[in-house]
């Protein structure tokens, strides 16, 4: 992949991650601690950002451990079956997001015509993901932005708090914590 294309992909993916970090950073502490729907969306987004950046996915080892739980054992606010082993602090979530941001930047920088042929392959079951590297990156960016929008909507609806838009990676301040 040529340098200019890598820069474009990073600018947009990095902006998506920056917006996720920003919404978590700017969430009032008491809201973060009390609104479990916000918390579970933030946790889910954080875990899957890292997971989809892990190639091959069998090498995924989350910084914030979780347990997969059956529907009957999940909190009603949870959005999937990955339940954190404890309630992680806002700082822990932000730190993990920042680590994944750097992992993403390095992955995009390392893209070559040769390694673009590699695949993100979960397994051999019919619903397992099996995507080329560029596609999993775009999928991950869309997933990140989708949940960032949900978090922004919760803050807007519940607290009338508006978050900043990021045009490109690095154009909003995410180093407040």
TrEMBL record:
Transmembrane segments: none annotated. Gene3D superfamilies: dinb family like domain. Residues 78-151 form the DinB-like domain. InterPro entries: DinB-like, DinB/YfiT-like. This is DinB family protein. It comes from Limnovirga soli.
